[in-house]
Amino acid sequence: MFITRFVGRRFLAVAASARSESTTAAAASTVKIAKNPLEEFFEFDRSQDEDKPVVYGRGWKASELRLKSWDDLQKLWYVLLKEKNMLMTQRQMLQAQNMM
Length: 100
What we know:
Elements: H1 2-18, H2 25-30, H3 62-67, H4 70-96
């Protein structure tokens, strides 16, 4: 577990520095180019040294979601599923290290 976390953090930090800075925090957390599908379970953008909170967009209104096509809703659901899995992975890592 420790080796995976250490190697994953180092690898992901290098990948994050190689990415362009033009993307917003919200877009960067949802759109990633990962060589390994398991990389999508770890957050690239934030380091422990940052004190700034990440700025996210507003929530979707039901009326806006009703106007979306089935394909758009399916893509949105998949993005939200990946975000949930990333958060659950981070939670599991903290619990394994008795930090939570």
